[in-house]
Amino acid sequence: MAVNLDDVDWAIIDQLQQEARISISELGRRVSLSASATTERVRQLEALGIITGYRAVIDLTKVGYQVLAVVRLKYPGNRHQPLHRLLAERREILECLRTTGDDCYTLKVAATSMAHLEALMDELAGFGSTTTSIVYSQTLPYRGPERP
Amino acid sequence: MAVNLDDVDWAIIDQLQQEARISISELGRRVSLSASATTERVRQLEALGIITGYRAVIDLTKVGYQVLAVVRLKYPGNRHQPLHRLLAERREILECLRTTGDDCYTLKVAATSMAHLEALMDELAGFGSTTTSIVYSQTLPYRGPERP
DNA sequence: TGTGAAATTGCTTGGTG
DNA sequence: CACCAAGCAATTTCACA
């Protein structure tokens, strides 16, 4: 499943992880490749599923989500469909990881207020026992991987 | 700190959260605006700090990080500099949130193998007691916020 | 795979409603 | 604020190494 990538591939990945909207020709300049060769490399990285997409990063506070929380959910049994349905509906749930350990799921949830968070927690509590931690600050905002 | 955004702003945000590399004219078509007006809107969203950047999303497994873990760190005392130094150095730490509750920090860590993860955990254990959960799957890969 | 040249398309800027 | 038009870049395609 893992793929062999050379220095140029990694240079491209690094650049696009930092500034995904630079032009192909600018990217080519930075990695010392012609525009057409750069296009081909990027196309390959996309086709191989190494680059899975490009996303704008939004400031949650500025768009109205003043509360960010990490929720751990202890989910008894193995009927996961209802939870998946909730994840699809409630767009306030930004991320959901299934993990080992006592808490089966770790979710990241954005809310506009504590009241809003409370309502979301009531929904989640229907699935199992929850542990909620409010996020003070993103000590390290998400960054992508570098060459192993 | 929060900002007032109209429908067009949100349409732009939605599009760029999904496909950050589309051209300005394509974006303009999708939100029914001319290219120059679209450029101006996007510039404003960036200048206001609502859009904080654009990032390529990389498949961790395919580039060699077979293990993803969520680590909760109980950090006694309040000397946070050493931890911040580690976060800057160890690029395997992809994210770090400071939270309320017993565990002061929640980290997301990528490793190439269990041995690699073990070494990372030894480093983190120097800061306090840790609780580690291996991620089975991203039930919901990260997505951005929608209009509140 | 990478390059270079030509045709197409997209971007930017200044002037206008 | 948004549109239009013109001049300038960037993108794509193709023949060639």
UniProtKB/TrEMBL annotation, chains A, B:
Keyword match rRNA-binding: no
Keyword Disulfide bond appears in the UniProt entry: no
Alphabetical keyword list: DNA-binding, Transcription, Transcription regulation
HTH asnC-type domain mapped to chain residues: 5-66
Alphabetized Gene3D superfamilies for the sequence: 3.30.70.920, Winged helix-like DNA-binding domain superfamily/Winged helix DNA-binding domain
Pfam families linked: AsnC_trans_reg (PF01037), HTH_AsnC-type (PF13404)
PROSITE patterns linked: HTH_ASNC_2 (PS50956)
Name of this chain's protein: Lrp/AsnC family transcriptional regulator
